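Field log, afternoon session.

UNIT: design team B
ACTIVITY: writing a sequence onto a fixed backbone
BACKBONE:
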């Protein structure tokens, strides 16, 4: 048991490199309750590491606790780049392997505190990795995201970053603009595109474009 624990190293990382499992398995990824403050925003898996990007969708600051559980193994060697996650912000946790796993999935539990309550984020991920090839090219996704935001006077500047990833759809911009989101709920392969705000350099919009259909499936902004 001690040897298994020593084989698992955990650190935080702000980068997400996407080498994902196949599409069907990706959509099986889930967390226990989506109405909790902290949710899984995206993830990536390789032979060397699992990276979880966690989004605070609640109204209160989230305090991450310096411990987690992977497949029933309690892990305390967890280093955090930021232990406090403000509302509408993200934090990343990268679990470096080799990771003991005799099952078809990784079961990860991350405790945290928000407001006056304690929570546990449960993340279940399928094993394996593949290179996922999108039907919608990056150039088209950038144009789609820019047109969507600009048409609602959320004027975009330069592109600050892009990532091909798997994200849970949300209604962030659709609620702001008062329009219906026709995208199906759940995790989907998409392009995550960060635009600088034309009216506020240093601040950004991030829009999620489904990489199979070209639909806008969600996003977020840094105010």
């Amino acid at each position: 048991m001690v040897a298994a624990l020593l084989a698992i190293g955990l650190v935080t990382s702000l980068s997400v490199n996407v080498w994902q499992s196949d599409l069907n398995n990706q959509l099986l990824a889930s967390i226990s309750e989506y109405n909790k403050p902290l949710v899984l925003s995206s993830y990536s898996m390789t032979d060397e590491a699992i990276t979880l990007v966690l989004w605070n969708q609640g109204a209160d600051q989230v305090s991450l606790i310096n411990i987690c559980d992977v497949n029933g193994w309690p892990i305390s060697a967890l280093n955090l780049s930021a232990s406090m996650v403000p509302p509408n912000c993200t934090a990343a946790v990268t679990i470096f392997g080799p990771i003991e796993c005799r099952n078809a999935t990784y079961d990860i539990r991350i405790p945290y505190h928000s407001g006056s309550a304690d929570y546990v984020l449960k993340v279940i991920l399928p094993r394996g990795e593949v290179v996922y090839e999108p039907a919608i090219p990056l150039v088209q996704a950038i144009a789609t995201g820019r047109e969507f935001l600009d048409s609602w006077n959320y004027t975009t500047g330069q592109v600050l970053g892009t990532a091909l990833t798997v994200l849970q759809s949300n209604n962030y911009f659709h609620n702001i603009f008062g329009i219906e989101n026709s995208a199906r709920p759940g995790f989907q392969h998409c392009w995550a595109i960060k635009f600088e705000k034309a009216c506020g350099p240093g601040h950004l919009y991030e829009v999620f474009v489904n990489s199979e259909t070209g639909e806008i499936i969600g996003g977020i902004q840094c105010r």
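LOG NOTE: Residues 104 and 127 are 6 Å apart (CA to CA).
NEXT ACTIVITY: expression trials, pending approval
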